[in-house]
Recover the amino acids of this structure.
């Protein structure tokens, strides 16, 4: 079962849309993930190319043809749209462990009462499942690490990233 997490959830909560200056969509999932080959095929049917496990990119992206070009340097500029997948598992006591999450207490555990039953948020007029209490999730977990690092303390105010030079690593 997929659900919105991290950046897309922040965009949905603060403005009902995707964050216009982000390159990725973060999707959590509960349950067993299908095999990489089956997932790759399902993503291809939706117009995406999965180039490593947990990350995929739309083939319409102008950089998609260069993903495997061994003659190109690795870039530090994250200007390629992609999807990150995060597994969430229920613990024996009913709480939830979300991969990639670090809360204010240094834990990746979410209280069960804040996770299920799932609620829904809107992005551009479409409903998407997410955790039961999205604001709790953002304020107590995500923002203490990932979101504050990416968006700052005034995370509810949309703003572009500062201009970056395209610096390559050789």
């Amino acid at each position: 079962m997929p659900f919105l997490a991290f950046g897309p959830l922040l965009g949905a909560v603060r403005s009902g849309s995707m964050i216009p200056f982000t390159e990725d969509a973060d999707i959590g999932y509960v349950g067993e993930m299908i095999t990489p080959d089956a997932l790759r095929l399902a993503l291809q049917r939706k117009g995406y190319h999965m180039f490593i496990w947990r990350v995929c990119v739309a083939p319409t992206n102008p950089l998609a043809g260069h993903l495997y070009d061994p003659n190109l340097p690795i870039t530090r500029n994250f200007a390629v749209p992609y999807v990150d997948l995060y597994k969430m598992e229920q613990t024996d006591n009913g709480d939830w462990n979300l991969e990639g999450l670090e809360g204010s207490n240094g834990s990746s555990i979410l209280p069960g009462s804040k996770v299920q039953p799932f609620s829904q948020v809107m992005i551009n007029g479409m409903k998407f499942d997410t955790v039961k209490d999205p604001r709790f999730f953002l304020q107590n977990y995500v923002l203490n690490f990932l979101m504050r690092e990416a968006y700052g303390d005034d995370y509810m105010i949309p703003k572009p990233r500062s201009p970056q030079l395209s610096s390559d690593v050789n």
Summary: The chain has four helices and eleven strands. Residues 66-70, 165-170 have pLDDT under 50 and may be disordered. Residues 2-169 form a domain with the Beta Polymerase; domain 2 fold (CATH 3.30.460).
